Amino acid sequence: MLKGFRNFLMRGDIITIAVGLVIALAFSTLIKAFTDYVINPVVARLQGGDSVGLGWQLGEEGNDATYLDLGQFISALIYFIVFMAVIYFCIVVPYKHYQSRHGVTVFAEPGPVKTCPACLSEDLPEAAVRCRHCTVELPPAVDAGATRV
Predict the structure, then answer these.
(1) CA distance 93 to 148
(2) What is the CA 27 to chain-centroid distance, rounded?
(3) I want to staple 116 with a disulfide (CB 3.0 to 4.6 A). Which of 69, 93, 131, 149 is the partner?
(4) Alpha-carbon distances of 111 from 64, 108, 123, 125, 128, rounded to whole Å
(5) pTM score > 0.70 for this model?
(6) First to last CA, the chain
(7) What distance in Å separates the CA atoms of residue 68 and residue 59, rounded to the nearest whole number?
């Protein structure tokens, strides 16, 4: 039983995912600091005056629970976009390149699909002969390169 667990942990996919998560957490901390200490002050300054941020007080003055803080939302949105860009360009792109050198296709574009005439499902592979949802026979795929006579 322990041997099977060890083999599971030592698979290449698990190690790759673990390393990716550790790198993602490190980037997350860095990007969080960037948004907290660079973006937030800029957004707060845009409101001007002695406001605590970009937003409106909905309840009694000074109550943080009723302050609609759009600045924090904008900051979180910027954080998300920057974080996903870093993950994509620092983890996904090199991983795709590494796997392609070993003959494995990852994160590929989905192939062509067709629609079932009976149930209107739009997720059927072009080569399917039966609908996976309603089991109706599908017309054969039309070859785009073929000429009609």
Answers:
(1) 41
(2) 15
(3) 131
(4) 50, 9, 10, 7, 12
(5) no
(6) 64
(7) 10
